[in-house]
Amino acid sequence: MEIFNSIANPFCSFFILGLLLLFANAVSLANATTHNHDFVVQATPVKRLCKTHSTITVNGQYPGPTLEVNDGDTLVVNVVNKARYNVTIHWHGIRQMRTAWADGPEFITQCPIRPGGSYTYRFTIQGQEGTLWWHAHSSWLRATVYGALIIHPKEGSSYPFAKPTRETPLLLGEWWDANPIDVIREALRTGATPNVSDAYTINGQPGDFYNCSSNDTVIVPVDSGETNLLRIINSALNQQLFFTIANHKLTVVGADASTLNPSPPQSSCWDLVRPQMF
Ligand SMILES: [Cu+2]
């Protein structure tokens, strides 16, 4: 009997500890959500700088859809390739914990999705919050196949700074008045640097300095005195970009899906080393 007790007691404590761990795990997973999305990669007529191109997009949108999740959530994205190029999607800045095959760079973590094929990415966001982005990781498809990936704090927790009045994603990009795939192919063929882009874009729009663009400038409405959270993504391919707002100071509260604490730096201009996200 005594022998039985000395074995049974430690076993019993391990059993209870195991039950407690299981329970704690279930509680932490209770609020986590699984987000299902379909990404159809397809040629879409897009008119910029007075000319319509057959542009590769996701779901016909340029830039592509914005994904919004909470820390702890799972993303399931079924990518269907209806374009004539190979494609993969990279989830830029996501720490792929035990899901390295979902990272996306072609020929590094996966074979490309062939025209007519599909692939489902599945991963969980763990311990990250802020602004990231997703983009194609095959050739130069990422010139037009990209979008914002916004990670809100875990359900029930808040930002470590005052709640902003508004949140606005700003995706800075480049537009070629040509097929971007042709631009990189030509550069590889000749050994020269790729042709520079024909316009810089904000949320896919070149703005009113460019031809045929004056009606499509991105306008973010703000009221005097309010605090705005700008989610700035440098989705340009080749250029280093600088971001500033005339007569305003910017406070950086986070970078690369981490918040900066406790005293965020202030400046009037930020240098965005590609492809950083603030
Ligand atoms: Cu990337």
From TrEMBL:
InterPro entries: Cu-oxidase-like_N, Cu-oxidase_2nd, Cu-oxidase_fam, Cupredoxin, CuRO_1_LCC. The keyword Nucleotide-binding does not apply. It comes from the Eukaryota. Residues 1-26 form the signal peptide. Keywords: Signal. GO terms for molecular function: copper ion binding; oxidoreductase activity. Residues 41-155, 167-262 form the Plastocyanin-like domain. Belongs to the multicopper oxidase family. This is Laccase. It comes from Nyssa sinensis.
